[in-house]
Amino acid sequence: GNSVTQMEGPVTLSEEAFLTINCTYTATGYPSLFWYVQYPGEGLQLLLKATKADDKGSNKGFEATYRKETTSFHLEKGSVQVSDSAVYFCALREIGNQFYFGTGTSLTVIP
Amino acid sequence: GAVVSQHPSWVICKSGTSVKIECRSLDFQATTMFWYRQFPKQSLMLMATSNEGSKATYEQGVEKDKFLINHASLTLSTLTVTSAHPEDSSFYICSARAFGEGTSSGANVLTFGAGSRLTVL
User: Fold this and answer.
1) Residues in Cβ contact with B29 at an 8 Å cutoff, skipping those fewer than 6 apart
2) What secondary structure letter does DSSP report for A72?
């Protein structure tokens, strides 16, 4: 079946530190992969996506590469800011099917 | 961009009472809305898919008589937790897919509400 495994948090980083949030998946077909972000008090927002192997999604300085060989979609950012403090969800979706989410990783960036 | 409003954001109720959570698409029509539930330290789990004008489709293990879903219009879906018990305490979040968005693309995205935290005493 389909599933998403995401590194547990919480993660606390100093401003300008490098961020990696690991995400691996299990899928029966060829899913699209997503990272969603939830800022305090707000709904989940799409951060970035990749629809096929070797695609790189990027947005707001965040990047994630669809690695089929390692079934991974790790989220990275070279220099985090306080405003990046949020909960990050990795997700997959196969065509016509539902989304499968990871457990979410809480990130706190301290000045 | 598309906005989904979910209300209430927090609700505390006594055991045995019913609680209604509303999910509204504010600036688009949503033919399909999804209801998720998240227990602490667990994944967001899909509970049901609601389509405007028809019965909701529930995921395996979700009691349809306990979690009543109504999608009476293209902008509103409601989830009613009937006879709530402490084990129903959870974070409920809805999402919507806009009218016209097909299911053929893996890039299909959803717009999520901010979620509703239910605590049953």
Assistant:
1) B74, B75, B98, B99
2) B
**CA dihedral angle for residue B8, residue A4, residue A27, residue B49, rounded to 10 degrees:** -10
Q: Note if the bond before A40 is cis, omega within 30 degrees.
A: no
Dist. CA A51–CA B106, nearest whole Å = 6
Note whether B109 contacts A89, CB cutoff 8 Å.
no
Q: Quote the CA–CA distance of B99 and B71 in Å, as a whole number.
A: 14
Peptide bond into A111 cis (omega under 30): no
pLDDT in tens, B20-71: 999 999 888 888 899 999 877 777 888 999 888 888 999 889 999 999 999 8
Contacts of A103 in chain B (CB under 8 A): 41-43
pLDDT surpasses 60 at A8: yes
The helix/strand count (H/E) of chain A reads as 0, 12
* Average pLDDT of the residues in A81-100: 87
Chain B contacts of A44, Cβ < 8 Å? 93, 95, 112
